[in-house]
Specification:
251 residues; Alpha-Beta Plaits; five-stranded mixed beta sheet; globular
Length: 251
């Protein structure tokens, strides 16, 4: 059996996120879906797997059911496949943030950088003066990254603020392009950098996964594999599974 894997997120006000936990968990169990979903006041984030029919039904419920009252109408979604179920169980967790930066003033609902589609990404990287940032953790960068990207050498995403403070200067680094696995970390990172005075901040819409899905390998600037937080460990061009070591947590 081939399983469908859905990586999803959306920044959206969910003041009732605590009340959503149990109904969402039951919905996933009823559909035979496994994985992890994070809920916070700022939205939803996670990766789940199941049959094609189950994942399709879950996405429909998230978008259209009375549970979320139409609030998840702009989910950022990436679909891939797995030859074996990549998760052991289903978890729905309550968090302070759906991706942890640890800066209360950073709000992607107010302001984020400029989205760049995978089709436009290579052209942006060829522009003069671009600083290309990999916003992921060090063990992810080691597995693969874009040509010429700066590795911030962080152990967890919350350390990104210190990297910006110590290594970057808005008066010198006027044009920044950044990327991450699925796009969510760049929402926070770009919002943070704009607040720090950086003039032009771009980020890859849909992240590395969308780039690997849409850009032909013959035109790709990507080298290596893309680490994913499930038992597949890494994906390559066309979102094909690659062999690797056991995954680690992004928290």
């Amino acid at each position: 059996m081939t399983y469908e894997v859905a990586a999803l997120y959306q920044f959206v006000p969910l003041p009732d996120f605590r009340e959503l936990k149990d109904p969402l968990h039951k919905l996933c169990l009823d559909l035979g879906v496994r994985g992890t979903l994070l809920l916070a006041h700022e939205g939803i984030n996670g990766t789940v797997a199941g049959s094609h029919e189950a994942i399709d039904a879950l996405m429909t419920e998230l978008r259209e059911s009375t549970l979320f009252m139409g609030r998840l109408d702009n989910l950022e979604l990436k679909f891939s496949t797995a030859t074996e179920m990549p998760f052991q169980r289903m978890k729905v967790r309550l968090k302070k943030e759906i991706v942890t930066l640890g800066d209360p003033q950073t709000d992607p609902l107010r302001r984020v950088g400029t989205y760049v589609t995978p089709a436009e990404w290579n052209r942006l990287l060829d522009e003069a003066g671009i600083v290309l940032l990999d916003t992921r953790n060090d063990f992810e960068v080691e597995m693969g990254t874009f040509e010429g990207a700066v590795d911030p050498r962080i152990k967890r995403f919350s350390e990104f603020k210190d990297f910006v403070k110590n290594e970057l200067d808005p008066t010198q680094h006027r044009k920044v392009a950044m990327f991450c696995t699925g796009g969510i970390r760049c929402e926070k990172a770009s919002s943070y950098m704009l607040a720090q005075g950086f003039e032009e901040v771009f980020h890859l819409k849909g992240g590395i996964l969308k780039y690997l899905e849409e850009v032909p390998e013959t035109e790709s600037r990507w080298n290596g594999g893309c680490f994913v937080f499930d038992e597949r460990v890494a994906l390559g061009h066309g979102l094909v599974e690659q062999a690797g070591e056991t995954g680690q947590s992004d928290e």
